[in-house]
Amino acid sequence: MSFTPPIKLIQYLIEHSIDLDSILSTPTFEGINMELIGDVLLAASKFSQNKWAPLNWAGDQNPAKLIDGQVITTPGFKQAYKDFVDAEWLSIATPSEVGGMGLPQVVKVGTDEMFYAANMALGLCPMLTSSAAKAILAHADKPIRDIYLPKMICGEWTGAMCLTEPQAGSDLGPVRTKAVDNGDGTYSITGQKIYITWGDHDVADNIIHLVLARLPDAPEGSKGISLFLCPKFMVNDNGELGSRNSFSAIGLEHKLGIHGSPTCVMEFSAAKGWLVGEENQGLSCMFTMMNEARLFVGVQGVAIGERAYQAALQYSNDRVQGRTITGIESINGHPDVRRSLIDMKVKLLSARAICLAAAAAGDIASHSSDENIRKEAHIREALLTPIAKAYGSDIGVEVSSLGVQVHGGMGFVEETGAAQHYRDSRIAPIYEGTNGIQAIDLVGRKLRRDGGSGMNALMVDLKKIYNLANTSSLDLTECSLSLKEGIQTLELATDIMLQADEIDALSAATPYLNIVASVISGAFILKAVVNGAIAGDENTENMISLCNYHLKSIMPLAKNSIEFLKSPNKLVFDFPREQLADL
Question: What is the pLDDT of residue 531?
Fold first, then answer.
């Protein structure tokens, strides 16, 4: 099945839904303009179509294999990854002072969406490498950075994240992997890790693992976890690879989807490692990696949903079945099929807008020359990241399911590819912190901990968008009224959550996250419409149509959850636990 990235839509949102001028006006991004960004997006579009998309089906049908202790990836993956590295795509948003291209993160969100949509299983490899490199850059000592970062930034060596153990998943406090000080600046790491994405493979010469482990006499729980760097192959003084480290993949998981991505069980047997960051501060160091990964898991949800949407659109254009009331011969002419397609498109647009807003806040937080602006942007980035991850990945599953439905019976048949998109999408709400954990993070850490100040600042900006729409030359009266009602709903929901006791707040965390996402995504789309009109963008008229659909179909869903928020504990726990299986 062919794949054509929605480059016009991505570019429209980058140009008009975020404050791109504020990002590009920072000294870091001097000389970067929209013309350059457009060229980069176009190049990524061509690369993803021609190099990665043709291997997506092969990865599903011919997954990685473990042979004599070595993981062998899908035929074609090694060359496709090399092409990616040669084109320097991995370092697109890495600071130029450490060897990257130095483009804004918002551009990386746009390009990576195309790569994930083309081949999500393969795209996980550079995603983890980029995030691991970011953690090493932030926390490792200079000698470690000097040895490993140059090779990782270019993608010649890849990265992996070793957190999970059989008894330590979402709660990493029970981690049992041990680290013993060797007395020479190195440590011996012993233990087993599971669910290690791209933990072993043959597409790169070396794999740099970041491993959570516990030192002797470390405090119990998450406060006693340290982070270590363990390379697959040691690096000699001359920079060449030496002996193999004493860890390996001892198994591959047989998964529902992303078959082309090797998910490994890793056994560490006194493997040599180096401490990253301070002792017993491993979890905070790892969150540097995880927070970036969480944003890009949200982008993955958008990406796989977009791939599923395109497959459904192509099928609906070709499939003839029954007489349509519109006179269009294909099933695209049936109103319910058309409704399904526009619903898919707008929901993806919503999640895409939130991901870009989170990335834009991160760009400002990292690069603004004004300390107060950086602090405010950091709060905004922290607030939007769990929303981007949870909403983006949930929308990916929802849209991929609709994609199967549009295909009808053929959607249940593997050869169409619709089933693969649905299966591939299902992991995104689970890994890098389940979406339930994202909702708890939003409510517990990002909302209630600061008394709602970060959310209130966001709502101030939503009201500015409302005022902007009211002063526009476009007739956006109905859209403005819908946004006004949405903001009022969000204010009410936020007040309820701030006043709720802990069990009520936790019971309603996911509905609250979805309320926030439904409202802010509509506001971001409306902002893009107004700014696009001011700029004279020729695609604005079509965007108005998508905006209308959102503000009349998706945003009103927020109001439907308010009654639940008023008594979630009662609704969730009133039914007796012992009768959950039956009455």
Answer: 97
pLDDT of residue 2: 80
**Which one-letter amino acid corresponds to residue 54?**
P
CA proximity to 483, closest of 527, 442, 514: 527
The pLDDT of residue 222 is: 86
Instruction: Tell me which H or E stretch contains 291.
Output: helix 282-318
Give the range of the structural domain holding residue 176, as residue numbers without chain letter.
Answer: 159-281
State pLDDT tens for residues 292-312.
Answer: 899 999 999 999 999 999 999
pTM over 0.85: yes
Where does residue 115 rank: exposed (0-12), middle (13-18), buried (19+ CB within 10 A)?
A: buried
Q: Which residues are catalytic?
A: 432
Is 388 part of a structural domain of the chain?
no
Tokens of 116: 């994930």
Is 2 within a domain? no
In 3D space, the residue among 521, 522, 517 whose CA is nearest the CA of residue 552 turns out to be 522
Do 168 and 276 share a structural domain? Answer: yes
Token pair for 574: 């009133």
The enclosing domain of 178 has a CATH number of: 2.40.110.20
Question: Which H or E run contains 231?
Answer: strand 226-231
Give me the pLDDT at residue 406, please. Answer: 98
pLDDT score of 40: 98
195 and 270 fall within a common domain:
yes
For residues 138 and 140, give the distance between their C-alpha atoms in angstroms, rounded to a whole number.
Answer: 6
Q: What string of H, E and C letters represents the secondary structure of 117-169? A: HHCHHHHHHHHHHHHHHHHHHHHCCHHHHHHHHHHHHHCCCEEEEECCECCEC
Tell me which residues of the chain have a pLDDT lower than 50: none
HSE-up of 324 (CA within 13 Å, CB side)?
A: 18
pLDDT at 317: 95
Q: Which residues is 460 bridged to in the sheet? A: none
With beta carbons less than 8 A apart as the criterion, state whether 198 and 125 touch: yes
Helix, strand, or coil here: 371?
helix
Residues 6+ apart with CB under 8 A from 369: 26, 27
